[in-house]
Amino acid sequence: AHVVAEPCFDCKYTDCVVVCPVDCFYEGAQMLYIQPDECIDCEACVPECPVEAIFHEDNLPEEWKEFTALNADMSKQSPNINEKKDAMEAETCDKSRKRT
Ligand code: SF4
Ligand code: F3S
Q1: pTM of this prediction?
Q2: Where is this region: Disordered (predicted)?
Q3: Do the domain assignments include residue 20?
Q4: Residue 8, burial from CB neighbour count under 10 angstroms (0-12, 13-18, 19+)
Q5: Using one digit for the tens of pLDDT, what is the confidence trace for 4-20?
Q6: Alpha-carbon distance 79 to 32, whole Å?
Q7: Which residue, by CA, sits nearest to atom 6 of ligand 1?
Q8: Number of structural domains the chain divides into
Q9: Is the dihedral of CA 45, 47, 48, 54 positive or negative?
Q10: For a substitution probing ligand 1, which of 16, 17, 20 has the most ligand atoms within 8 Å of its CB?
Q11: Predicted ipTM?
Q12: How far apart are CA 13 and CA 30, in angstroms?
């Protein structure tokens, strides 16, 4: 399955949710999560994220390995999201990387 990792934290651009064919994104307070049992590994979401937060679980950078379990757990406790909304304005979100 694919995993949302640290760059999403305090950003939530939500470009990813629009392209997912199986609507498997769930929204937490600070970031989004992918439900691994629903993700079909189509990779459509990967290039959509302006901060490159989405990885196949096998390609997750070592320092973000814990996000695999976090996505699995939190996606089950969070509401589904399949429509784009405004990104967060948190200072920790690297807006300079956002594509125009
Ligand atoms: Fe959805 Fe495909 Fe991304 Fe999985 S890889 S979360 S199925 S868009
Ligand atoms: Fe997060 Fe990137 Fe989606 S910042 S909400 S994973 S487009």
Answers
A1: 0.93
A2: 77-100
A3: yes
A4: buried
A5: 999 999 999 999 999 99
A6: 10
A7: 39
A8: 1
A9: positive
A10: 20
A11: 0.97
A12: 11
